[in-house]
Amino acid sequence: MTPAVRTRQSGRLCIDAMLTGGEGPALARLERWRDPSELSSWLAECPLAVPDASATDADLVRGRALRWSIWHAVNAAVRGEPPAAHDAAVIEDAAAAPPLVPTLAGGWRTPTAAAALSTIARDAIDLLSDPAQRARLRVCAAPDCPVPFYDDSRPGTRRWCEPGRCGDRTRQRAHRARRKEQP
Ligand SMILES: [Zn+2]
C-alpha cells in the first residue's frame, strides 16, 4: 500500500487542488485522487470542508483535468505568460457549473463534488485574472521542489511552497551540512 500523502495546505485552494497529483513522475508520486472516494475524502479535508461530496467517476475525470490545467496555467503565469487556450477552456468550463452555496448556519447547501470543482476553478480564475495576485505567484525556493505557490504573506516575502514542509526541510539540511563541516 502506498502511504497516504497528507493534504497540502498552501494557503490557496486552487493551488492545494493542483498539488493533489497529475501527469509526469513528480506529480504522479503525489497522487491523492486515485478514485472517486479519495476525491470525496480530499474535499472533506481541504479548506472547503465539503462533507459527503459523493464524487462520481465523471467528477474524478473532470477534477483531474481541472487540476492539470490549473498546474499549466499557474506555471505559465509564473513565467509571465497567458494560459494556453486549452487550459483556459478547461478551467472556464469547470467554473461554468454552479459553485458551492454557503448557508447561514455555516457549511454548504446540498454540496456536490461538481460544485466544489466549480468553486476551485473560480478560485483559479480569481487568481489568474488579477495582475496583483498573479504577481504573488512564485516557485518554491527549495532546490528539489519545483512547485509554484501563492505568496499570501503581507510583505510578499514568502519563499516556500509550504513553510512547515520545504522551509523546515531546507533549514534542517543546512544545519546538518554545517555540523559536518565542523572538525
Ligand atoms: Zn516546496
Structural summary, described in words:
- It is globular, with a radius of gyration of 17 Å.
- Strands 1-2 form a two-stranded antiparallel ribbon.
- A hairpin with an 8-residue loop joins strand 1 (137-139) and strand 2 (148-150).
- Residues 1-5 have low confidence and may be disordered.
- The longest helix is centred in the middle third of the chain and has 22 residues, at 57-78.
- Helices cover 51% and strands 3% of the residues.
- The termini are far apart.
- Helix 4 packs across helix 5 (85-96), helix 4 runs parallel beside helix 6 (113-128) and helix 5 (85-96) packs across helix 6.
- The chain has helices spanning 13-18, 25-28, 36-45, 57-78, 85-96, 113-128, 131-134, 163-181; strands at residues 137-139, 148-150.
- By secondary structure, it is mainly alpha-helical.
- Bound molecules: zinc ion.
- Zinc ion binds at residues 140, 142, 145, 147, 160-161, 166.
